[in-house]
Specification:
Blueprint lengths: L1 H24 L14 E6 L2 E6 L2 E3 L6 E3 L17 E2 L6 E2 L16 E4 L6 E2 L17 E4 L3 H4 L6 H7 L10 E4 L5 E4 L5 E7 L1 E2 L7 E5 L2 E5 L5 E7 L1 E2 L6 E6 L2 E6 L4 E7 L1 E2 L7 E5 L3 E5 L5 E7 L1 E2 L7 E4 L5 E4 L5 E7 L1 E2 L6 E6 L2 E6 L4 E7 L3
Antiparallel strand pairs: 1-2, 3-4, 5-6, 7-8, 7-9, 10-11, 11-12, 13-14, 14-15, 15-16, 17-18, 18-19, 19-20, 21-22, 22-23, 23-24, 25-26, 26-27, 27-28, 29-30, 30-31, 31-32
């Protein structure tokens, strides 16, 4: 009996400690760089428990205890097996680094953190860069699947006119599961307008809806006919008249009429933003394409961000940053030690060891003078 009381007391104290740590972060469900360990009991027989264990894993080479998210051992440097990931929407198991769920098609949230000084990739929980020692509060974040919440959606006028893009909410049919376990579409009165015949379906967006049949994805029109029959391994909703699609391990784009703008050939692609899209062609790197499929800038960058305020932040393999303009030329040649995407007309840059801000014409708003920004 005394043992059980002790375990109850330990569990209560541990939970209070975790709540206190979480409250210092000021977030709900995500705890930033603060480590939050939850004790997990394991039943071994009726009425007894094994001791609680912290959520730790051990290095596959030397056995050192590591944080469950660690990718490399802090003692011997051995790379650890990738952590199992699950879909943020349906909970299905995913391959490490997956951008879309193979079960429900939901786009996953992936963040990468890079050192503002040397450009090295940072791992969750780091307070200092392991390469150069720079504090992580000076570092920027590249957001992949959340960029739609960080970058204002802007439809490029020329593209809209040439592609004849329908309004985003032109068709308000909603996807719904039928009594047969299949999916179809209903109108505002909850009446079936497209019979439930699909394995999975998503709401209409810009006049087309994503559907899945035989684990392949395609698009249908509001009348229920196919815009593109299911043949893709992954897809996205239409954005600025184009949609991202994937066959095998290669990505491309289709137009609003279902034809290819660019057949799948890239290692990675992003939605069009401010009229251009970021693409990756390994090993050359990242570049940008125009709405007609031609290159604005051919792949050559080690790191690149979406266009924001008419400029795109890029980094060459020599770890120097610069900005690309909509005509493909540089506002700033890649000579900066660090740079961020423009926001509200200003871009944060680093020259030598000082931070400052530049305007969209390339002139200084505040010359580099700060230790951090």
């Amino acid at each position: 009996m005394h043992i059980h009381i002790a375990w109850v007391f330990y569990f209560a104290c541990s939970m209070m400690q975790g709540i206190a740590k979480a409250s210092r972060c000021g977030t709900s469900g995500e705890f930033g760089t603060t480590l939050f360990y939850i004790p997990v009991p394991t039943m071994v027989s009726a009425g007894t428990f094994t001791p609680y264990k912290l959520l730790m894993k051990k290095c596959i080479s030397c056995g050192t205890e590591l944080d469950d998210k660690a990718m490399f051992c802090v003692e011997c440097g051995t790379k650890q097996p990738p952590q199992e990931t699950k879909c943020i929407q349906c909970g299905a198991k995913l391959q490490p680094g997956a951008k879309f769920c193979t079960e429900c098609g939901a786009k996953q949230m992936v963040k990468k953190h890079f050192c503002a000084n040397c450009g090295a990739e940072l791992k969750d929980g780091m307070k200092f860069c392991v390469e150069c020692g720079t504090p992580t509060h000076n570092n920027q974040t590249e957001t992949s699947s959340e960029k739609s919440t960080l970058v204002e959606e802007k439809v490029h006028e020329t593209l809209v006119e040439s592609a004849n893009i329908p309004d985003k909410d032109e068709c308000n049919y909603e996807a719904k599961e039928g009594s047969n376990g299949k999916y179809g579409f209903v109108n505002e009165d909850d009446e079936w307008v497209i019979d439930p015949n699909f394995e999975k379906a998503w709401d209409f967006c810009y006049g087309a809806a994503v559907v899945r049949q035989n684990k392949k994805y395609g698009y249908i029109k509001p009348d229920g006919s196919y815009l593109v029959e299911p043949k893709f391994d992954s897809v996205c909703d239409f954005s600025e008249g184009l949609a991202v699609i994937k066959i095998d391990d290669e990505w491309g784009y289709i137009k609003s009429d279902g034809s290819y703008l660019i057949e799948p050939k890239f290692d990675d692609v992003e939605d069009f933003c401010e009229g251009f899209a970021r693409v990756e062609d390994y090993p050359a790197g990242y570049g940008y394409i125009k709405p007609d499929g031609s290159y604005l800038v051919e792949p050559q960058f080690d790191y690149a961000e979406d266009f924001s305020n008419g400029l795109a932040c890029v980094r060459l393999k020599n770890q120097k940053y610069g900005y690309v303009k909509p005509d493909g030329s540089y506002l700033f040649e890649p000579t900066l030690n660090s740079a961020d995407s423009f926001c509200e007309g200003l871009g944060c840059i680093k020259v030598d060891d000082k931070y400052g801000y530049i305007k969209s014409d390339g002139s200084y708003f505040i010359a580099p003078m700060f230790k951090s920004a």
